[in-house]
From TrEMBL:
Organism: Cognatilysobacter lacus
Protein name: Response regulator transcription factor
Pfam families, alphabetized: GerE, Response_reg
PANTHER family to which the protein is assigned, alphabetical: TRANSCRIPTIONAL REGULATORY PROTEIN DESR, TWO-COMPONENT RESPONSE REGULATOR
Residues with 4-aspartylphosphate modification: 54
BP term (GO), one: regulation of DNA-templated transcription
Amino acid sequence: MIRVLLAEDQAMVRGALAALLALEPDIEVVGAAPDGVSAWREVERLMPDVLVTDIEMPGLTGLELAQRIRRHELPVRVVIATTFARAGFLRRALDAGVGGYVLKDAPAEQLANAIRQVHRGGRAIDPQLAVDAWSDADPLNDRERQVLRLAGDGMSAGDIAAQLNLSAGTVRNYLSEAIGKLGAANRVEAYRLARQKGWL
């Protein structure tokens, strides 16, 4: 049996995924978590074979969970199940060590097959997304992405500086670099563009 942990913040979707996977003879859903922080606790407690996680969740995102699993060298493989059909998200997921990336509107058997393939050590990526991911490279570095995300949340340069232990001048430099790389007029437009591409 392939032991699966689900991490999904929408209760109805979480229940539907659990019910669908329960129909598979070789897959057992051993737990379900409503946010990234509790998902991490469940990963450590249950040590599932595969974590199926959304990208956007409270606490920790699915990508942050994947990075943490990789950093701790846990034997848990990760499949992203998301509505975000964006190349930028896929690239970041692959960089985080994710083995599968499937869309929630795909047929149910596609998720089950992705879990099997990733459990065997393979990859399961939507083919069109894979093509798009390598034709549209993310120009931002990690720090620029972090600063731009916080600016998009409405934080001032001073607030961002305090949160990241940087000087306000350094934060303004990162924002300026991000705005320039994206060809945006200001931080609001830069945030919007980066979100559309899946780079945040």
